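User: I need a structural model of Synaptogyrin from Pleuronectes platessa for a docking pre-check later this week. Nothing fancy, just the predicted structure tokens so I can convert them on my end. Input:
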Amino acid sequence: MDGVGSFGAGRTGSSIDPITFAKQPQTILRVLSWIFSLVVFASIVNEGYVNMGSERLHCVFNKNADACNYGVFVGLVGLLACSFFFLLDYKFSSISSVKDRKKAIMLEVGFSGFWTFLYFVSFCFLANQWSQTTPDELPLNAGADAARAAIAFSFFSIITWAGLTVRAVQKYLLGTDMTLFTTEHMDGGAPTQPYPSNSPVGVTTETTETYQSPPFTENNAAPTYQVPIY
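Assistant: Understood. Predicted structure tokens for Synaptogyrin:
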């Protein structure tokens, strides 16, 4: 257990190796989620609206503005959340308090699980609206590639965010073993060291108690009288 701290992170004050951090499965999933969220957001914002012979723009998903708005919302918030949790992962080992670490992990578990569900809704919602879109609504097939990209990467985001949820739950379960930390770590303070003993290293001193008779026992004995002989 050397070098392992609470909730799956290194011990407080340990140095962070950027290469090792980049190779962690959680970091890879975080980067992929960031990319997928960017694709969903950018696809709808850039090409998700088409002009149908008027100045008003219509959503490519069956002219349903709610579908485009929902996709933009999920992609944008997911993008910002990935950036936040990426920094939190990098600074996690510097958090000295076990209580603060637990709060961070619980936040990650709750958000990752919730965003997995929202991306599942996004995939189903966008796929359903796209299936109802007729070719007449998209002249020259405008925005079709962007719509397919948003649907596909919403599906990929379900996988990556679910993986992040599993990793967060694993870190939370690792943090239940509190034997690695003392009570001082619970309050964020440094552990106190006991006073050094004067005994040589490796030598154990044993205290033995010897029985001592009560004082004046011999003096309190009755004196003997000897009869003089004439």
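Before docking, keep this in mind: The first helix runs from residue 18 to 22.
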